[in-house]
Design a protein that fits this description.
single chain; 205 residues; mainly alpha; Fumarate Reductase Cytochrome B subunit; 6 helices
Length: 205
């Protein structure tokens, strides 16, 4: 009979409800935007393509706003400490991936916003078909001959950040599964949305 490593009081080791809600909301929105991005090549133009782009931008701006909120919340409400049994390299790796995600959650929508602002096509951004979102004036007001190469550079950066997001997602999921099924230190449980799932550790029979 193998026992799960004991943690401190689960209620103290878990993230706050606000942090958990923001985590899962942002995660779902990011996965939705990835799915939308995979459809871009199938729809080169037309109304369906325009609506797809608008939805992609709407979700991206929402991720940006929620990420800023989450970062502010993290500063005001520091996250719980890592479990004491986690090794130093594990903490360093976890911290690197977490801050990498913060960089992506801000960098991806910001580069997308900048790219739309620089684009010579001057497509508007309508958040969920309702709210007009402004261009970045300091970019949009540049001469067209400067905006065209800038658009290409921003598109390249946006794409590379998306590729980096795939890497971080794989690392993040792999680490969560490792903690859950191999080290069994219940780190994954700290971010589960249902309090009942973060109850007292049970013996693995």
């Amino acid at each position: 009979m193998v026992k799960v490593p004991a943690l401190a009081d689960p209620s103290r080791m878990a993230f706050s409800p606000v942090a958990i809600a923001l985590h899962w909301a942002i995660a779902l929105l990011i996965f939705a935007n990835i799915a939308l991005a995979w459809r871009f090549d199938a729809l080169k133009e037309g109304l369906a393509w325009f609506r797809l782009i608008q939805l992609h931008k709407s979700i991206g701006i929402t991720v940006l706003l929620l990420s800023v909120l989450r970062l502010v919340w993290r500063v005001v409400h520091p996250p719980p400490a890592y479990p004491p049994q986690m090794r130093r390299w594990e903490r360093a790796a976890a911290s690197t991936v977490h801050w990498g995600f913060y960089g992506l959650m801000l960098g991806l929508p910001l580069t997308g916003w900048a790219m739309v602002s620089a684009s010579p096509t001057n497509l508007p951004t309508l958040l969920f078909r309702k709210v007009r979102w402004p261009h970045l004036g300091f970019i949009h007001d540049l001469p067209l001959d400067q905006r065209r190469p800038l658009t290409d550079a921003l598109a390249f950066t946006h794409e590379q950040l998306a590729n980096l997001a795939y890497v971080l997602i794989v690392l993040h999921v792999a680490a969560a599964l490792r903690h859950q099924f191999f080290t069994r230190d219940r780190v994954l449980w700290r971010m589960l949305p249902l309090p009942a799932l973060r109850g007292r550790p049970q013996e693995d029979r």
